[in-house]
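REVIEWER CHECKLIST
Item 1: Sequence provided? yes
Item 2: Single chain? yes
Item 3: Sequence as submitted:
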Amino acid sequence: MSFPKRFAARLRGHLWKSRRDRELEEELRFHLDMQFEDNLRLGMSAEEAAYEAMRRFGGIESVKEQHREHRSFASIESLLRDIHYGVRALRNNPAFATVAIVTLALGIGVNATVFTVAKAALFAGFPMVRNNDRILYLSTGRGCCLSYPDFEDWRAQARSFSGMAVVHGTHGVITGNGGAGETYDATEVSAETFRLIGSRPILGRDFARSDEFPDAPPVVILTHSYWATRFAKDPEIIGRTIRMNGVPTTVIGIMPEGFSFPQKQDLWVPLIPTPEVRERDHRDLWFAFGRLAPGATVPGARAEMAGIGRRLGIEYPRTNRGRNLIPAVQTFNQFFFFGNENTIYWSMWGAVFFVLLIACANLANLMLARAIGRSREVSLRIALGASRWRVVRQLLIESFILSGFGGVLGWFIARSGAQAWAVADRGPGMQSWRILDYSLDYRVLAYVTAISIGTALVFGLAPARMLWKLDINARLKDGGRGASGGTRGKRLSGLLVIGEVAAAMVLLAGAGVMVRSFLNVYDANLGVKTANVLTQSLSLSKKSYPLPESRISFYDKVSARLRAVPGVASLALADTIPTRNCSTFPFELSGAPSASGQGRASVAAIIISPNYFRTMEAAVLAGRDFTDFDTASGPPVVIVNERFAGRYWPRQNPLGNRFRLFDGKTPGDWLTVVGVASNIVQNDGTGQEVTPVAYLSFRQKPPAAIEVLARSSLQPENLSIAFRHEILTLDPELPPMRSVSLDERLQVNYWSRGLYGVLLAILAAIGLLLASVGLYAVMAHSVTRRTQEIGIRMAIGATARDVLKIVFEQGMVPLGIGLATGLAASFAVNPVLKSFLVRVSPFDPIAFAVSSFALCFAAMLGCLTPARRAMRVDPVVALRHD
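Item 4: Structure as written out by the authors:
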């Protein structure tokens, strides 16, 4: 009988069998185990540590006294000693502890970051709004716009809401204090708005119903940020008059810092229901919102509003007929986020879950390798009387310690990640009007705590299970020579590596198709040359420029001054820029059968000045461009793009043909086609689809808002100051918006796709790194276990190349299985991204091939170092290896 077994038998012979004695037996086992651990740390061998433990606690009587003194504190003391031992054991192995903690921190940190972002976008709602989940947003099916009379009917008839308000965006100019004018963004709101959302000004007063009367004195409430930047937080601003669009307006309040609703704006003004606004077919208001009444539910509110919409359709058939005017009742996420965005947020959450799984598998493998290395020590402890649960508990406590440190570090990673996302969310491609709260609150803390506990259990269970089923006799026999954890440990380790590789493949394949989609948008052919083009937005007020002639005169003066600026090669005007949405109108071709309003085709209409196509470096393929003689007094003319001409006048000359646009049910003048232009992408930010477009002369229909487009021989930014100076010279009350290059304006088309693609690529890179490290750890441990075998092989004639082949074959098997599993999983997962992809399949072979190559390359690097170490094994040393 071996030495440890003899001591174990001696111990069992001294223990009593009564219930009290069983309690003392557990206490003795605890003290023996603790003494055994202390002896090991003093540098004793396992046999010496066991002998000294038995000598220290020579009998049951010595334990009785300790049991009586410490019985009430035994469990707490045991737990504290386990924690103390776990910390000391990890401190004695800093390399393992560092790798484990960093791996966990990455997995937990990226999970907490995405949870913070998803919380803000999918669940939280507006910051500083009371009970966001009780606020619902009401609009119509034809968009978000509605009429004020409809809103009044909704508010009067709906019983599911305790209150309802309506909002509308606007902008203008503030002048005063002898300085230059400054543009502002504002929201017109009902007087009840702030009371409904549970907020109030920190200075001054809220809006009152009397502020909505048409003859009421104009008043304004400022955001905290605008008050700080424009008025230097002057508390005396309350009651002061400022000039807004030339109208004296009294400042009555300042809202709290960080508050903005329902968009990013500078100020709020009361929505005045003027006679024009009170027209039922005047649908210019953005949307309404309401707070659910106590006891009301979202489905009930939707059903009630649908009934109200149908009744209004019967009462007002001319303006409210059709399903398009049934009120849509939506939550915050449903209204402010669209299908593609929701899909990408859930996809990101799925991606970080894969990263966490890879991290857990990685740590489980490291812990498994460590447990195999400690199996002889564990066997001696169990032989001395320590229960298997006692040993497993020690291992789980070490897992919780690692996870705790990883969670703390992950919290800081999440905080930095959320801040970086908040900055990216303000980029040109994101919806800048949205207000989201990316702060780490108690919900994020609870999430980090939960996943930290969960990961500790997940990566701690595999080694715990192995130790629970440990064969003590096999480990103690012959001093444990050659034991390596058995086939069960090898099989489990291989399965973990396969899981890591498969999860990494899913991440890489998803990131690959997203990056391909982004490149398709970025390299799209828009039909124009965007380099060296400066854009300048202008918006004329109806009060200062009420007539078309006054607007044309101002635009002519601006054009003349800006063309004279040095560096301007060509200049034109348009009411929108390429790719951006523009107005669409039903139309009717001359000589074609008349169709009803529902059956008419629609065409995008853009108002441009002469020289537009030359400035954008597009071409007039047939006919002529507009001239200064295409005025309101001349015949109405139009230029169509190549797609329009090919679709409606195939195989015939489109010049001289006529059609007319419909504004609602009112037909416009017959327009004569005088030119056919090359295709320019419009109404499609991805730049993939060319739709029919009709170009109208700005002298025949001058808009109030227009874009100045100037092609320059210089960098566009160098013209910005000169443009601003020239416009201020003409009209100091009309400061222009910031001059921006066309390339910068078009970043809105691909910024969000690039951002999401980069994020998924980062997650995939983390997953790839962790999978590579995991494979390296498994192969390094395998080489260590097989050192004696490798030495024997080399002693009987195996070459270094043979050893390299053995190691790589062992590593490539789980790689191949994991790669195949990951590819199959990618075919199931990637279709989730389909709605966000542009001109690329979710199963794109190039993305899959590159992802597979990257994973194989990283895995081979993970195998290379252990393989080289195996090749340098000295057979003489290896044969003596224990």
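Item 5: Key structural point noted by reviewer: Residues 14-20, 58-74, 478-485 have pLDDT under 50 and may be disordered.
Item 6: Recommendation: ____
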